[in-house]
Amino acid sequence: MDAESAGQRLDNYLLRVLKGVPKTHVYRVIRSGEVRLNKGRADADTRVADGDDIRLPPLRLPDRSEAAPAPAREFAVLFEDDHLLAIDKPAGVAVHGGSGVAWGVIEQLRRARPQARFLELVHRLDRETSGVLLLAKKRSALMALQEQFRRRETAKVYAALVFGAWPESLKVIDLPLHKASDAAGERNVRVVAADHADGRRSITLVKVAHRLPGTTLLDVTIKTGRTHQIRVHLAHSGHPIVGDPKYGDFARNKAWAREQGLPRMVLHARDLAFDHPADGRRIALHAPLPPDCAGLLPR
Fold first, then answer.
1. What domains appear along the chain, each with residue ranges and CATH number?
2. pTM of the model
């Protein structure tokens, strides 16, 4: 394992170096214990370090000559310097390839910037979630920023459009979540009882931004960063995110797409604040609502 990969999650590292191996297969060999990190089993979210010994089972890699390269693509830049890059990720674009997705943001940016010696995702957004996405241009920046995410020293606000009239009194959702993966590596998250052995405390703060016909636009702040936290918490509260294909209301989503012409999940990473990894100054980034979402608001 090289120094430039230090600090990455094990799954992200393997997905990067095993380009072309199906994401479901990578997760399957991790869960089965066939991937050995320093001679022991390791979870997908284990952070790899410089000098780690990673042993893999025999894997059949596709012929790279047959794989179409990722197209070069730049994205709307919110902030950039020698240490990091922040973009406004559009909905419908995965952050990286895998699970039937040939390429994502990171592959397209690397293709567009062949001169970049280092470019890695600091965090992830779901494919259908738009908004602020951070990438590191140096290993030191990657490690420093990921440590801020782990310590919850960043401040994140999302805009979420939900079905129904959100109750004004419901401002804090403090419910534990449990994440599991099926045989295909698909992640499923659910709310569990407080005494559940594998439940992880999850806190979401909610504020009503706009009340619209049949829906409510919320400002959502997460105090913990669990997988699918916002989507599961809001759905469990009886107000699923409009267009959410996994935790939402299929029939209402279909009707909404037909009536509004917006066939996607309306979840947007609007604001992100963090300390600059080099000089410590506080950076506050803002990505305005995409035009198709902003068009829903009263003028």
1. 1-57 (3.10.290.10), 69-151 (3.30.2350.10), 155-265 (3.30.2350.10)
2. 0.78
